[in-house]
Sequence to fold (696 residues):
Amino acid sequence: MSNFVQMYACCIPVKGYKRSLIYDLQRPQNSNFIPNDMYDIIVDFRNKSIEEIKRLYQYQYNEEIDSYFHFLLENNFAFVLQKNELNNFPPLENIWESPSEITNSIIYVSKKNIKYLNLLLKQLSDLRCDAVQFCFTDNITIEHIHILGKQLELLRILSVEILFNYNDLLNISDMLSVIDKYPRIRRVGIGNCPQEFSCTDKRLYCTINQIDWENGCGNISSQYFSIGMEMFFESQHHNTCLNRKICIDMNGNIKNCPFMKQSFGNIKNTTLKEAIVKQGFKDFWFICKDNIEVCKNCEFRYMCTDCRCYIKQPANIYSPPSKCTYNPYITLWKHQKHYVPIEECGYFDKSFRFVPDYEKIDMLNKTIWGDKE
Amino acid sequence: MIVIVSQENDSSTNDVMDWLYAWNKKVVRINETDTINSFSLQIDDNDLSLIFRCGNKEFKISDVDYFWFRRGGFVFDVSFLTKIEPHFYTYLKEHLSDECNTMKDFLVYLLNKKPSLGNYYQGNANKLISLYVAQKVGMEIPNTIISSAKEDLLHFYKNQKSSITKFIQDVLCFNYQGYRYYTNTSLVEKNDIKKMRGTFFPSLLQKEIHKRYELRIFYLKGKCYSMAIFSQEDKQTVIDFRNYNDQIPNRYVPYKLPHNIEDKIDKFMHKMNLDTGSIDMIVTPDLKYIFLEVNPVGQYDMVSVPCNYYLHKKIAQTISNNE
Fold:
């Protein structure tokens, strides 16, 4: 094996409490778990030759070191380079920026506030918002979607998702023709659908489950994970749910999240632009996973969506999401055998910090994974 | 007021405009599809005024602070000509387009007096001039022959051992009966040349350069933003990385050029009269840098996104700082 091996800039190891994960930002499917020992070698000894790394470990771990680099090359996370190329391959700069004041929005549309829809669309467009999710909580007709679709063509909003529960006025073939007609409507989700409604078109999602407008949000699950450049860098500086988000609830209140209590005005008398500059509106934008208890020890922290609405300890804004079902101390999900909640791996102290019980975690991991001392 | 000349479907122009809007700049974007239907120019002893309209877009030359030529060009509306007799059509069309060119050239001349980015007349830099200029500023280039004689090509092939062929200037690309036809860079076998007639349309052969990786460099007013493309590891992309492998994309990573190469690129761009453009290079297994070509209006998204360079913002900064 040649002397120098370097990670591709787009393959970034992230350390968790018990294991690390290489995020392959260009080939997300290729991402893979690695032991924390391997993480340390990759990060601490960047630009050192394999020979030198072996020497630094006093030639005690030659085989392990060889097998690590073999793994990195085999999985195309790294490449062999010559000594005088070492300075040619800088890492990706850890920055995230956007020219949009608002990048995403959730709008609840009810009988009460539907008359403000056009106004809202115009305001979102002026803020250069990219993506909007519309939740129609009352009966919707196909005309509503036509009006929305036509309006979008004149606006800056690039991508729209529409959610509602089924009613008798709708049929699936109409729905598909609407989606074809307006390319900016990327996805339509219909809840409470009759059993015979099914659709293979990815843009139309039908489920027999009723969409719950009150509690349906805040779930943390691997199905919401996303590995990519935007997410990876945004998540290191910002909240992955609330950053540059603005929401309207059923009553027309302007909020960070439709389920949160705090309102920054009502669309009746406040513009979105005015709401954004109110004190406190942007506070949540800057809470990133590295600030959040437990999450900061999790190897999934730069691919995971956050939730600041449903949290374990409402008195602490840095508290982990209450609906998270993953325990990073033992690397198990709730549905997996031997799972225990994080509360059994430590406790929250008076200042709400999570204090891991190292002995207990070691013991659990010995039982579950057969870890050695 | 910032004037941008571009094409309707160029999304990277949108991305730059987003930043300009974020900084409250006034922008007029003229696309190639916006035909010019009103042009009013007055010059007298002490003054010049020029007003320019395409549909609902308009600007006065005196209000322009910055001119960005992204791609495309100004197109005058000569559609009224179709109403005339065919016999006159040919003559008049040529005559009127010459008249239009004079107005267009004057418009560009005035815009170029403003701080600007992009060279309106170098949208498609001549590939042979580029190669020649690159060699003059001390960059290595691939040995190249263009000839219409079979013997010349055979002789060249014999000396170079392994050769590729590609278009002299532009890619040919069209759809016919449900198939897409296009030219790309491909390897030439000795038999390919042997099968040809004695003389033919001038054809280009180039010594095949073995790649360690390819470089795509976005040059912006003296700065190089470079990316390495590991196209060598995938058989599908060894000769031409545009044979994209969607399943397992090539590795695209940020790259820092050695200073002496950056200096040569800077000299090259000055000689070519370009302040921006995308340069293709190859790095050989023994770490030699070989210049291939420059595309003054190339897409930089493909460099900006994988390298997290935020080139759209950097271009917008260049424009709004009047650099």
User: Anything to note?
Assistant: Helices of chain B lie at 11-22, 86-112, 127-136, 150-160, 190-194, 259-271, 301-307, 311-320.
